[in-house]
Design goal:
Blueprint lengths: L9 H8 L11 E4 L2 E7 L2 E7 L23 E5 L2 E5 L4 E5 L10 E4 L4 E2 L7 E2 L4 E2 L4 E3 L2 E3 L10 E4 L6 E8 L3 E10 L11 E7 L5 E5 L9 E9 L2 E8 L8 E9 L14 E2 L3 E3 L4 E3 L3 E3 L10 E3 L6 E9 L3 E10 L11 E5 L2 E5 L9 E9 L2 E8 L8 E7 L37 E5 L19 E8 L4 H12 L12 E3 L7 H14 L6 E4 L22 H10 L3 E6 L3 E2 L5 H7 L5 E2 L5 E3 L5 H10 L7 E4 L15 H13 L2 E3 L20 H4 L3 E4 L7 H18 L4 E2 L11 E9 L2 E7 L2 H12 L4 E3 L13 H31 L4 E2 L1 H4 L4 H5 L5 E3 L3 E3 L8 E8 L3 E4 L5 E3 L2 E8 L5 E4 L4 E4 L11 E7 L4 E7 L2 E8 L2 E5 L5 E7 L5 E6 L3 E3 L5
Parallel strand pairs: 9-14, 21-26, 35-36, 35-47, 36-37, 37-41, 42-43, 43-44, 57-61
Antiparallel strand pairs: 1-2, 2-3, 3-34, 4-5, 5-6, 6-7, 7-8, 10-20, 11-14, 12-13, 13-20, 14-19, 15-18, 15-20, 16-17, 16-19, 22-32, 23-26, 24-25, 26-31, 27-30, 27-32, 28-29, 28-31, 33-34, 38-40, 39-40, 45-46, 48-49, 49-50, 50-55, 51-54, 52-53, 52-55, 56-57, 58-59, 59-60, 60-63, 61-62
InterPro entries: CBM6, Galactose-bd-like_sf, GH, Glyco_hydro_31_C, Glyco_hydro_31_TIM, Glyco_hydro_b, Glycosyl_Hydrolase_31
Organism: Lentzea rhizosphaerae
Keywords: Glycosidase, Hydrolase, Signal
Length: 988
C-alpha cells in the first residue's frame, strides 16, 4: 500500500486561529492583516504577504539594504481598499483578500495602471503549467515538441533544483497528483529511469520514479497519491541528493479518481484597466504560444489563430456595466494561406477588422469597443471559420500601454553570429510603461542560507517599482536596494590584451610587450588564456613550468611594467591530475564525475568542495581570475542563489572582482546556454565584470553589441560589461601573421578585414571595458595595414587618455546605479527617437554621444539623432543642433563622437603606456555654456565648474589643466592654466 501525505500540520492550523504576537515594524510601514507594505522611496514599495504573519526583516541575497531616506506618503482605507500614495505612484490592496494576485493589488502611475503580481493557483482538475509556477535552478525551454503552454521546465541537474506549484484541493480526501514529463538521454549520457522527490507543504519528501521515455519528444505521465485537506497547498518536485534528476517536466495536475488529464490551464485574472499578456490566457484549438518574432511583450505571443481557435481571459474589476475600449496588440504579416491583407477577429463575438503590418516582427494595435458586465466576466478572442491569421501579443482592457521591455540580458553571447537579428534577451527592470516587480520571495538570506519553509502558508515578498519615465530613479532604487555595480580598480578601465593561443612568459616579456611599446600602444591588463596549464590545458591546476618557469616572477614582471594580469580557469579537474587526490581529500571524497572525459566537478554549495576548489588556485599567482566557459558540470546546489552569482562572489574574495559570466545558471546546458534564473541577476553586479562570451567576427555581431551593452546595463544595473573586441570566432579565413601548432600541424592565425578591425576597435574604445580578444586571431594594430593600424593605435591611446573620465562614470554608476554606457532614453525619456536609435548609438555618461560606423569600407556613414541641446563633433568640431537628424561620414581615422554643450569631457593630456595618475588633464567644454563635472580619483574628488567665460577648479587642483574650448562655428582654442579660476576667453 502506498504511503499518503498528511499536509496540514498542527502548527499551521493553530496559526490560523491564534493571534500573531505584536512585532515592531520598520518606519514607513503599513500593515493590513497578513499584508505588509514598506514605502522605501516615491517610486519603490516593498509588498510582503505572510499567511503566518511572520514578516521577514533580514537582508536577502538580492536585497541587501532597505534603509532609505524617509519618504512622504499617505495611507487610507476606501471602499474596502487600502490605498497608499506617494508623489509618484498609488498602490491599492483589497483588505483581507489574501495573497497578492491580479485582482487584489493594483499599481497606478501617471502613465499606466498595472497588476504587478501574477499568482496562478491550480484547482483540482486544472492543468498546471510548470513554467507558471515557482522554479528553483531550472529553466524554461521549448525546443522539444509536444509540450503545452510556453514550454517546459528543463534540467533538474543539481540538488535542490525543482518546481513548486500552488494547488487548491476543492474537497478533502485522496487525490492523484499526475506529472507530465519526458526522460530521454540526459547530459550525463545515461538513458534510464530517473527520480525526483515529491514534497507537500514542506513535509519530508518521498521519491517518485519517472521511467525512461523513447526520447525528449516522448511525453508521458506518472502519478502518485496524496491526502489533502480542502484549500491551498504547495506541491514541490525537487531533485534531492539521492535523486538522479535530468528530466523535463511540462505540467502537472491534481485529479480525483477517474479524472482525465486536463487540457484547460489554470490562469490568473486580467484586471480591468491593465494590459494583459495574451499567452497568459486560456488557449483553445490549435493556437499555441510562440516567441520567434522579436518585439513582443511578456514571454511570447499567441500564434496560429485559425478557425476554431482562440484566447480567453477572465476579466475582473469592471467598475460598472458598460462599453469599454479593448486594445489588441498584434502582428499581421503574410499568413499561412499566402495572403497579406486585413483580417477579422471576433472579440466576444463582435467582428473586428485587423489591418496589415509590414511583417511578423512589426506590431500594431487596434481598438474595439466591447460591452462588459460589472465585476468579473470572460473576454474571448476567437476566429471565424476562415481563420484569423494574426499573432496576438497583448490585450489592454481600457489600457493602451503594453508592458514592453527596454533592454534585456542573457548569460552570454556565445555563438552569436549577427546574421539572424539581434540576440534574444530576457527583460529586466526597465519598461516603457514604467513599472516592474522584483520578486524576492525565494531568494536566500544574505549569507546564502535558504529562508525558513512556511509549510502550507502562502508567502510573497516583492518590490514594486513605479517609476514612470524616470529611469534614473528606477536604477537608483535598484542600486540602493541590491547594491550598486562593482567599481573596478582604475587600471581595469584601460586596454586589455587577450588571445586564445599558446603563449609563454618569454613570449610576453620578449616579444609582445616590446611590440606594444615600440608601436606606441598602451596596455593595462594581460590576459593569459587556458594553454598556460600543465597536465591538461583545459582544466589543469598548475602553470606549465616549460612555459612559465617562475610564475611569481612572471607576475612580478607584469607589475613592474605597470600592468596587471589574469589567468583563465575552467572549473573541473581530471582524475589523473596530480592535484586530484589532494582536492578529493579536502572535499572529503564528495567530488563527482562530470560529463567531460575523466573529469570531476564541484558543488560549490558544499563547504568542503568549495574549499577544495579554492585551494587549487593557490599555486598560480595572479591579480584576479577569469572564470571561463561554464562549467563542465560544476555548479551550486544552494537554494535561492544562482550558481553564477555564488561562485562569482567567491572569486571576488580571491581577487577583488570576478571576471566571469553573469545572470544565469551554470547548469543551463550547452555552449550557448544563456537562460537566466529568477534569483541572482540583481545581486550579480556587486561582484562581477561580465564577460559576454564568444561571438563571431562579423559586422552584424559588432553592431549588436551597441544596443546590447546599454540594454543589459539599464535592465539589470550592471555597468562593467566586456565584449570580445574583434569577435572570438573567425568567419573570414583571412591569413594572419602568426603560426602555431595544432595536433602537430603548422597553422596560421586568422585576421579580420582591415575596415572591420578598425571599426571594432573604435567601438571598443567607448565601451565600459576595452578587451581585445580572439580565437587564434590577430587583434594587434601592427598586424594590420597602415590605415587600420593608425586608426587602432589612435583609438587605443584615446581610450587610455579617457580612463579618468570613464573611472569617474564607473564610480557614479556604483553610487547611483546609472551605468557608464546608457541608451539615450535614460537621459531623454520623452523623445521617441531615443528609443528608436538604441541599436545604432549610445551615451557614454550624460555628455558624450557615440554613433559607431558599422558598415564596410574605408569611409562609412551613419544616421545620427541628436538629443535636445547642442552637440559638437569631438574630431571635426562641426556643431549640430539638438532634436535633429544628420548623416555623418567618417573615414577610418575618425568616428562619430559628439560632446553636449554644457557637458565636460576630461582626459589625460598626453598618451601613456599604461594607467598612471594624470598630472596633466584636458577638459573639453563648449564656449558660453554652463555645466560641471566632478572627477573621481580613488576617494578624492576634483570639481570643475564652467560658468560663462570662466572655469572654477576645486579639490585636487595642483596639476596642469588644459581647456579645449569649442565654439558654435566649429572652431576651438586652447587655454592652459594651473590656477583654481581659469579664464576661458579666446586670446585676442
Amino acid at each position: 500500500m502506498r504511503k499518503r501525505a498528511t499536509v496540514v500540520p498542527l502548527l499551521a492550523l493553530l496559526s490560523l486561529v491564534l493571534p500573531a504576537p505584536a512585532t515592531a515594524q520598520p518606519s514607513g510601514t503599513v500593515v493590513s492583516g497578513q499584508a505588509r507594505f514598506q514605502i522605501l522611496s516615491p517610486t519603490l514599495v516593498r509588498t510582503e504577504y505572510a499567511g503566518d504573519r511572520r514578516f521577514e526583516n533580514a537582508s536577502t541575497y538580492n536585497v541587501v539594504n532597505r534603509t532609505f531616506p524617509g519618504t512622504a506618503y499617505r495611507s487610507r482605507v476606501e471602499d474596502g481598499w487600502l490605498v497608499i500614495t506617494t508623489s509618484a505612484l498609488t498602490l491599492r490592496y483589497r483588505v483581507g483578500s489574501g495573497p497578492f494576485r491580479a485582482d487584489n493589488l493594483e499599481l497606478r502611475t501617471a502613465s499606466t495602471t498595472a497588476s504587478p503580481w501574477r499568482r496562478v493557483v491550480c484547482a483540482t482538475g486544472q492543468l498546471c503549467e510548470a513554467e507558471d509556477q515557482h522554479r528553483e535552478g531550472v529553466l524554461v525551454a521549448s525546443e522539444h515538441p509536444g509540450h503545452t503552454g510556453a514550454g517546459f521546465v528543463a534540467g533538474f541537474s543539481y540538488a535542490n533544483n525543482g518546481v513548486t506549484a500552488t494547488v487548491r484541493a476543492t474537497s478533502s480526501g485522496r487525490h492523484r497528483l499526475v506529472v507530465k514529463y519526458a526522460n530521454g538521454r540526459g547530459g550525463d549520457g545515461k538513458h534510464e529511469d530517473r527520480t525526483l522527490g515529491l514534497s507537500v507543504d514542506g513535509q519530508a519528501p518521498r521519491q517518485v520514479t519517472l521511467p525512461a521515455t523513447a526520447d525528449w519528444r516522448d511525453w508521458r505521465q506518472v502519478e502518485t497519491e496524496v491526502d489533502l485537506s480542502a484549500g491551498e497547498h504547495r506541491v514541490a518536485l525537487t531533485r534531492r541528493a539521492a535523486d538522479s534528476g535530468n528530466v523535463n517536466v511540462d505540467s502537472l495536475a491534481l485529479l480525483t479518481a477517474g479524472q482525465a488529464y486536463p487540457v484547460v490551464r489554470a490562469v490568473d485574472d486580467c484586471r480591468f484597466g491593465t494590459s494583459c499578456e495574451a499567452e497568459n490566457g486560456v488557449l483553445t484549438g490549435a493556437a499555441k504560444i510562440a516567441d520567434e518574432h522579436a518585439g513582443f511583450a511578456g514571454t511570447g505571443f499567441v500564434a496560429e489563430l485559425v478557425g476554431g481557435t482562440g484566447s480567453s481571459q477572465r476579466v475582473s474589476g469592471v467598475p460598472a456595466a458598460g462599453t469599454y475600449p479593448v486594445v489588441l496588440r498584434y502582428a499581421n504579416g503574410v499568413g499561412g494561406d499566402g495572403k497579406h491583407e486585413p483580417r477579422t477577429v471576433l472579440v466576444n463575438g463582435q467582428a473586428i477588422t485587423v489591418p496589415v503590418t509590414a511583417n511578423w516582427a512589426t506590431w500594431a494595435t487596434t481598438t474595439a469597443q466591447i460591452p462588459l458586465p460589472a465585476g468579473t466576466s470572460g473576454l474571448d478572442i476567437t476566429c471565424p471559420d476562415s481563420g484569423c491569421h494574426v499573432n496576438l501579443d497583448t490585450i489592454g482592457i481600457s489600457n493602451s500601454s503594453p508592458h514592453l521591455a527596454l533592454g534585456g540580458y542573457r548569460r552570454s553571447l556565445d555563438g552569436y553570429t549577427g546574421t539572424s537579428g539581434d540576440p534574444r534577451v530576457t527583460p529586466g527592470l526597465t519598461y516603457r510603461d514604467g513599472w516592474y516587480l522584483l520578486d524576492d520571495t525565494s531568494s536566500a538570506l544574505l549569507n546564502g542560507t535558504p529562508r525558513v519553509d512556511r509549510g502550507a502558508q502562502p508567502y510573497q515578498d516583492g518590490y514594486v517599482f513605479g517609476y514612470g519615465q524616470n529611469l534614473k530613479a528606477a536604477l537608483g532604487d535598484l542600486a540602493a536596494l541590491t547594491g550598486g555595480p562593482k567599481l573596478l580598480p582604475r587600471w581595469a578601465y584601460g586596454v586589455w590584451y587577450s588571445e586564445y593561443i599558446d603563449r609563454t612568459a618569454a613570449d610576453y616579456r620578449d616579444r609582445i610587450l616590446p611590440a606594444f611599446r615600440q608601436h606606441g600602444v598602451p596596455l593595462d591588463v594581460l590576459v593569459v588564456d587556458t594553454d598556460f596549464k600543465a597536465h591538461n590545458t583545459w582544466n589543469g591546476w598548475r602553470m606549465d613550468s616549460s612555459k612559465f618557469p617562475d610564475p611569481q616572477g612572471f607576475l612580478d614582471w607584469v607589475h613592474s611594467e605597470g600592468m596587471h594580469s589574469t589567468l583563465n580557469i575552467h572549473p573541473s579537474i581530471q582524475g589523473s591530475d596530480p592535484d586530484f587526490a589532494r582536492a578529493q581529500a579536502t572535499a572529503k571524497g564528495k567530488l563527482a564525475k562530470g560529463s567531460c572525459a575523466d573529469c570531476y566537478v564541484f558543488d560549490w554549495a558544499d563547504p568542503d568542495q568549495l574549499r577544495a576548489y579554492v585551494e587549487l588556485h593557490r599555486s598560480m599567482p595572479t591579480d584576479f581570475w577569469w572564470l571561463d566557459w561554464c562549467c563542465d558540470g560544476s555548479g551550486s546546489s544552494l537554494r535561492g542563489v544562482t550558481p553564477d552569482t555564488w561562485i562569482n562572489e567567491q572569486y571576488a574574495k580571491l581577487g577583488g572582482f570576478a571576471f566571469s559570466r553573469g545572470f544565469g545558471s551554470l547548469q543551463a546546458g550547452g555552449y550557448s546556454g544563456s537562460g537566466p534564473l529568477p534569483t541572482g541577476p540583481w545581486a550579480e553586479k556587486r561582484h562581477t565584470l561580465h564577460f559576454t562570451g564568444d561571438t563571431s567576427s562579423t559586422w552584424g555581431a559588432m553592431k549588436a553589441t551597441i544596443g546590447y551593452t546599454s540594454g543589459e546595463a539599464v535592465s539589470t544595473g550592471m555597468s562593467a560589461i566586456s565584449h570580445d573586441i574583434g569577435g572570438h570566432n573567425d568567419t573570414t579565413g583571412l591569413r594572419g601573421s602568426e603560426t602555431y601548432l595544432d595536433n602537430g600541424q603548422l597553422r596560421y592565425t586568422t585576421k579580420l578585414p582591415d575596415d572591420l578591425y578598425a571599426r571594432w576597435v573604435q567601438l571598443g574604445a567607448f565601451q565600459p571595458i576595452t578587451r581585445l580578444h580572439s580565437n587564434h586571431g590577430d587583434r594587434l594594430p601592427w598586424q594590420y595595414g597602415p590605415a587600420a593600424q593608425a586608426s587602432a593605435t589612435k583609438f587605443l591611446n584615446l581610450r587610455e587618455r579617457l580612463v579618468p573620465y570613464i573611472y569617474t562614470l564607473a564610480e557614479q554608476a556604483h553610487r547611483t546605479g546609472v551605468p557608464v554606457v546608457r541608451p539615450a532614453y535614460v537621459e531623454y525619456p520623452g523623445s521617441p527617437e531615443a528609443y528608436s536609435t538604441v541599436d545604432s548609438q549610445f551615451l557614454l555618461g550624460p555628455d558624450v554621444l557615440v554613433a559607431p560606423i558599422t558598415t564596410p569600407g574605408e569611409s562609412g556613414e551613419t544616421r545620427v539623432w541628436f538629443p535636445p541641446g547642442q552637440w559638437t563633433d569631438y574630431f571635426t568640431g562641426q556643431v549640430y543642433q539638438g532634436n535633429t537628424w544628420a548623416t555623418v561620414r567618417a573615414s577610418l581615422d575618425t568616428m562619430p563622437v559628439f560632446l553636449r554643450a554644457g557637458g565636460m569631457l576630461v582626459e589625460r593630456s598626453a598618451d601613456v603606456a599604461h594607467d598612471v595618475r594624470a598630472d596633466s588633464l584636458t577638459v573639453h567644454v563648449t564656449a558660453g555654456a554652463s555645466g560641471e563635472f566632478t572627477l573621481y580619483e580613488d576617494h578624492r574628488r576634483t570639481r570643475v565648474v564652467q560658468s560663462g567665460d570662466f572655469a572654477f577648479v576645486s579639490g585636487l587642483s595642483k596639476r596642469d589643466w588644459k581647456f579645449v574650448v569649442h565654439h558654435a562655428d566649429g572652431s576651438s582654442h586652447v587655454v592652459r592654466a594651473k590656477g583654481a579660476v581659469i579664464s576661458l576667453r579666446a586670446p585676442r
